Amino acid sequence: MDEETALVLKIYSVFGNDEEVPSEYRSDKLFHDGTPEVREMVRKWDDLSDDTKALLGPYRKRPDEEGSWVESAFNRTSSTSFLIPNAYATRPASAIYTDFLESADGKAKIWYPNANSNRRALFNEGTTGERVTAVQAKKMAQKIKGFLDNDEIITEFETLLQKQLMSDGTAGGDGKLDIYVAPCGSDLGVTYAEHSTPTPSYIIMNSSIGLANDNV
Description:
Blueprint: H1 3-14, H2 35-44, H3 50-56, H4 69-75, E1 99-102, E2 108-112, E3 124-125, E4 131-132, H5 134-151, H6 153-161, E5 177-182, E6 189-193, E7 201-206, H7 211-214
Parallel strand pairs: 2-5, 5-7
Antiparallel strand pairs: 1-2, 3-4, 6-7
Helix pairs in contact: 1-2
């Protein structure tokens, strides 16, 4: 297998798109954290072939951007992906991620799928084999906000490194750190550096991460 094919399959696995991974390369073991694989993709991007860029293009987009991997996941109807009524099959990602919570310090926004994104509230299949509902995704966003607020994580980070979080301009509507509750093939998620360093980042938290402990 050549390097580009291997990279494509790793990215598919990181983002839970197992349908596109040949059966001989599938595994029930998840990436604990998909950040290294995403960093590899971003680092190699300019040298990748056009065909590989076409395959990986959706994974260079934020979950709420048109043509993103999340939008593709909502269009799939298999048992391992988002299960939604056919009437919603072409719903754009920008209409899915409209709701968010803001951290008490005003430095982060936690995005979660709105309740209207799926009438049956079947969001995606979690790592525990259970299904994540839109309600559970919101509860997870509330948990993340609780950690940010109670532990003052961003303040601790900025104090430790003696630097402020880098603004991402107008992405997500403003310069705040964006955290998305979204499906992921990693059991934790991904910290996504959008360009070569130094660069602003956003975070994807696996939408099923809380199910194994307390069913969110």
